[in-house]
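Q: Convert this sequence to structure tokens.
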Amino acid sequence: MFKGATALQFAAIHGNLEMAIILIEHGARLDVPPPRSPHGRWPIEGAAENGRLDMIQLLWNANNGPFDDKQCQKAIRLAEYQGHFGCSDLIRELMAKSTAGSSES
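A:
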């Protein structure tokens, strides 16, 4: 199911916050595409799909702001499909703050 996923993608999907922090501190990249499969997920998508609010916040902060809009929209859809409305709300809130911050420049 997760064949070809990076360690960070795997940690995000499974909500292993401590491992994600260690990986990010040691240079894990957030921009590595997921495996091409129906189950391939960017880290933020996997975190949202599995209801990992703390992981979403960590990834957003580690990315220094917004992810690609397509990633965010897919993450929102996956979260809502699984009933994780707190995750979809958080992503929308973070996106809105990023948009507001960029329009103030």
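Residues 15 and 52 are 6 Å apart (CA to CA).
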